[in-house]
Structure formats: C-alpha cells, structure tokens
C-alpha cells in the first residue's frame, strides 16, 4: 500500500549515509589501522567525561550540506505521494532539526540513526494531541445514545463509511441507528436504506428537502426511547466555500450535540483535501478522521497532511467497497507500514 | 494564499531594474510551488517549468513588452498549449450518439450524467439515460430523481446484477425509441479493482460508444495520472469532465488526466445543481491553476 513512500524514505537514508561515510573516510585517512584501534579504546575510556582530542576526531557531525540534496529529492517524492506542500515543508524542517548537528561516532550504524530520525519526524507530524479509543468512549458514556456526526466533501465516501462503521459497531456488540440527514442529494436516502438493510440496522428518515437537523434529532429521540447505543448521522456532502451549507452543518452540530464529529476524507485527494479539512474544522470542531479509498493505490500522503493540518487523529481507513473493508488506524501501524519490510 | 505569493514574486520582478538568471529561477520556483499546490502532477510541473525557464532565459521580449510581462505570457502559453488552446465542443453527429461515462468512485459521474442530459435537452436533443451501475445502492433512484422533473427517461433495474446486460438492453431500448443521444452511466471503479476495470471494458465493447467521457474529481491529487491511464487502457477515452470546481480545488490533477489520456477537457462541474455544468475554457482554467483570477 505504501511501498512507494517506503522506497523513497529508504533512498533518503542511503543518500545521507553515503555522504557521512565520505566524511568519515576523510577523518580516518591519516590514521593507520592500529592507531584507530587504540584511539577507539582511549575514547571509549574517556566516554562520559570530556571527550578527548581523539574522541572528537572519531566522530563526524552531520551538516546541513550533507542532507540538503537528499532532502530536495525527498521533497519531490513526498509531493508525489500526495503529502500536501505545507506538510512537506514542516516535515523537512523536522528532519533537519533532528539530523543537522548530530554527532555520529565512526563505526556506528548510521543508516539506523537516520531512519530513526525520519520515523520520529513522521510520527511527530502524525501524532495528534489526543487519542480516541472509540469503543471505550461509547462504553463509558452514561446516558445513551452516543452520537456521531459525519461530515465531508461530496463523494468522499460518507454514506458507505457509515454503513461499514455500523457493521463494525454491531460486531462489537453495540446497537446502532442511522439518521438520514442528507435530505438533499438525489438517491441518498435510498442508498442509505439499502446499506442499512444489508447490515441490519434501522434508518430514521424524513422526505427529501426536510430539515437535516430535525431528522437527526428524531433519530436521537428514537435511540433514547429504545435504549440504542449509537446514533450515526449521515450528512450531505458540501464544499468548504459554500456558506449556506456550512451554516447548515453548524446547525446540525448545535441541535444534536454530537459526542464525536468525524471528517470523511478521500485519500486520492491532493492539497485540496487539506484546505477542506481546515475549513470544516473551523466550522465544526473535527474530533477524528476516516480516510477512504486507500485501496485505490493511494500513496497515503493525505494521512500525513490531514493530521498535520487539523491535529485530529485518523480513526479508520477504508480499503474497499465491502462492509468489512474498514480498518482501525493508528500512527505506529502506519509508520511501521511505511518503514517495515514487505 | 499561494496566488498572492506568486503575485508578490511577480511584483518583485517588476520592481527590479534588471532581470537576471537568478531572478528568473526564483520566479520559476514560485510558479512550481503554485502548480504543485494546485495538485498538478510533479513530473509534469518539472517538465513544464523547465520549458518555461528555457524560454524565459533565451527569448527577448518584443518591443514595448517588459521582461516580466513576457514571462507571464510564456507561462500562460505553455499551460494553455498543454490544455489544448481552444475549447473543443462535444459533437453530436450520429443518430443516436452513444456516450459512456466512466470514473473513480465518488468523482461525480451520476450527477454529471444528469447535467449533461439536461444540457443536451436544452439544446433541442432528445436524450435517454441508462443506469448500468449495479453496485452502488440507490444509483438508479438518484438518476430518476434528477431527471424525472425534466421528463428525461432513465432506463435501469435496481434488481439486475449484470452491468453489461443492462447497458446493452438500455441502449437497445432507446435506439428503438429513436432518441438523439443515449448517455450510459456506469459504476465507480479504480485501477486496482481489476474485475471492475474488465467489466467496464466489456460494457464499452457491448455498446460501442461514440464517445467515452472520463469524469474526474477536481480535488484529485497525484494519482490522477495513473488512474486516468488505467481507464484509457481499458476504454477509448475521448473527453474529460472535471467536477467539483466550485470549492477551493484548483483542478491540477485533471491536467494529469489530460496528459495521460490525450483527451481534451470538454466540461467542468461547478456545483450540485443540474445546471452547474459549463463548457471548458482553457484560459480561465490556467488562471485558476496559477491562483491569479481572471485576466
């Protein structure tokens, strides 16, 4: 899935490693083998105290010029993996911060040091301030139901994602009802009803043109009366520049007071997705993100960009059109996927 | 934000008395950033800006034109040349003309089909629409809800699972009715779904469309090129509709689709309403890509 990105990061590591080795050779050259042995020994002895003259000689410092070229190349590769430009720049700074000025002892595994720095930089970009354990959150809420509102751009996959999540919640022992609050797009209600029938949950609906907030409110009342655990609110797709639709979304949030607002983003999207996420986050605070269509050979860059842009965790990724094709996401898994062997 | 950055770079250039190589390189880099942020394919950006830089360094501006103005002109020329300088309209020559629309999930095919049907109806054509999407629930109802108000007939069957059969029967149905244009909507798919790509190829072979239209999301990123390529390999893509250009997306990914398919953009989608479809204008599109507004 992230093979391409992995390849590029490995390439970066190798390039920087070679640069440093060049400098090492320059340091080593004047010394004969035996002297090096001795020097290493001495410097080991003095470690922890002030490094002696030879100790200083035996380490090279990573300089900006060592990584500049490799960073330029990595920048292009990250852009090709759909990491947004501003995220690429932030990542670049972080990598520099971690590597430039770092002293590396001769003979140590430099590749590992560089790779670790890369991993740390990516993990820092990806890791949001707070984490969400969805099942735990639902369980610990005292007065049912737990309300989740889904928002996003047109065609990003909200309705299908809601069906998948309903299926997942049911598997985990929760009862679910869905509010058909997309009362605008043609076919939206029929689509949701068909999904709901297949995964075995009820849909609360009004007619097309009805007030989306009222539909969601009814669904919550329905859940309250029947002791249903979770309400999932499907909303119409909207674009971030349409004032009326953004206001409508705010109203839905005001009326239903959701426990969680989830932004559904298309992982095939480029820089535009970051802009969308920011605008949505400004209008209604986004608590979590679900990235869809990751199976379409998406390079995964959107995951980095969205987390970086709005600081909300990615909860799931969609990897197909079947109901099982929803996978819980965590940053460590993602980074392991990028760096791990296939 | 980026449009502004680009503008200020160009202003900086206007202020400086001499334009040397360094200034040109700086401008080219700003243009690169503008295009990358607009989601234009990275390789394409490098290729285009190399050409722009070469011309900017070599060409002398004509009398009365400043170096700065000349560079902007070069950028415009190179980009519009790439997009096909003039708008290419959709041609309805055969009776009936059969059109097949294809694209990735959620790119806006179904809405675009309805928009196109209405667009053609307004121009006096009798149109029939076939729903061959057997996959997404509600697809047939979506088309009916969009087109019933205009009296445009939709052929489809939510119970039928064979997309190729539906497409074939639908085209046959409208052929007998003597309509001018038959538009076939198909299910969303992407290049990794080999079975669905094969299904699309079979639909295309069964109905032999006069025109295959690739519908592409204006917000798509760097994968646009590879995805468009996969569609082209399975069906003869003849034209492109870029959707969702009413938001902040600049549609740079669509440029990659043009590059991959060699097909021209014929329409853009600018909203959810059925009338939000405009014939494509290369000059306006380039302004948008560079974040410069209409000039």
UniProtKB/TrEMBL annotation, chain A:
<feature type="binding site">
    <location>
        <begin position="152"/>
        <end position="159"/>
    </location>
    <ligand>
        <name>GTP</name>
    </ligand>
</feature>
<comment type="subunit">
    <text>Part of the signal recognition particle protein translocation system, which is composed of SRP and FtsY.</text>
</comment>
<dbReference type="InterPro" id="IPR027417">
    <property type="entry name" value="P-loop_NTPase"/>
</dbReference>
<feature type="binding site">
    <location>
        <begin position="292"/>
        <end position="295"/>
    </location>
    <ligand>
        <name>GTP</name>
    </ligand>
</feature>
<keyword id="KW-0472">Membrane</keyword>
<keyword id="KW-0378">Hydrolase</keyword>
<dbReference type="GO" id="GO:0005737">
    <property type="term" value="C:cytoplasm"/>
</dbReference>
<dbReference type="GO" id="GO:0005047">
    <property type="term" value="F:signal recognition particle binding"/>
</dbReference>
<dbReference type="InterPro" id="IPR013822">
    <property type="entry name" value="Signal_recog_particl_SRP54_hlx"/>
</dbReference>
<dbReference type="GO" id="GO:0003924">
    <property type="term" value="F:GTPase activity"/>
</dbReference>
<feature type="region of interest" description="Disordered">
    <location>
        <begin position="23"/>
        <end position="48"/>
    </location>
</feature>
<dbReference type="GO" id="GO:0005886">
    <property type="term" value="C:plasma membrane"/>
</dbReference>
<keyword id="KW-0547">Nucleotide-binding</keyword>
<dbReference type="GO" id="GO:0006605">
    <property type="term" value="P:protein targeting"/>
</dbReference>
<comment type="similarity">
    <text>Belongs to the GTP-binding SRP family. FtsY subfamily.</text>
</comment>
<dbReference type="InterPro" id="IPR036225">
    <property type="entry name" value="SRP/SRP_N"/>
</dbReference>
<keyword id="KW-0963">Cytoplasm</keyword>
<keyword id="KW-0675">Receptor</keyword>
<dbReference type="InterPro" id="IPR042101">
    <property type="entry name" value="SRP54_N_sf"/>
</dbReference>
<comment type="function">
    <text>Involved in targeting and insertion of nascent membrane proteins into the cytoplasmic membrane. Acts as a receptor for the complex formed by the signal recognition particle (SRP) and the ribosome-nascent chain (RNC).</text>
</comment>
<feature type="binding site">
    <location>
        <begin position="234"/>
        <end position="238"/>
    </location>
    <ligand>
        <name>GTP</name>
    </ligand>
</feature>
<keyword id="KW-1003">Cell membrane</keyword>
<dbReference type="InterPro" id="IPR003593">
    <property type="entry name" value="AAA+_ATPase"/>
</dbReference>
<dbReference type="InterPro" id="IPR004390">
    <property type="entry name" value="SR_rcpt_FtsY"/>
</dbReference>
<keyword id="KW-0342">GTP-binding</keyword>
<dbReference type="GO" id="GO:0005525">
    <property type="term" value="F:GTP binding"/>
</dbReference>
<feature type="coiled-coil region">
    <location>
        <begin position="57"/>
        <end position="91"/>
    </location>
</feature>
<dbReference type="Pfam" id="PF00448">
    <property type="entry name" value="SRP54"/>
</dbReference>
<dbReference type="GO" id="GO:0006614">
    <property type="term" value="P:SRP-dependent cotranslational protein targeting to membrane"/>
</dbReference>
<feature type="domain" description="SRP54-type proteins GTP-binding">
    <location>
        <begin position="313"/>
        <end position="326"/>
    </location>
</feature>
<dbReference type="GO" id="GO:0016020">
    <property type="term" value="C:membrane"/>
</dbReference>
<dbReference type="Pfam" id="PF02881">
    <property type="entry name" value="SRP54_N"/>
</dbReference>
<protein>
    <recommendedName>
        <fullName>Signal recognition particle receptor FtsY</fullName>
        <ecNumber>3.6.5.4</ecNumber>
    </recommendedName>
</protein>
<dbReference type="InterPro" id="IPR000897">
    <property type="entry name" value="SRP54_GTPase_dom"/>
</dbReference>
<keyword id="KW-0175">Coiled coil</keyword>
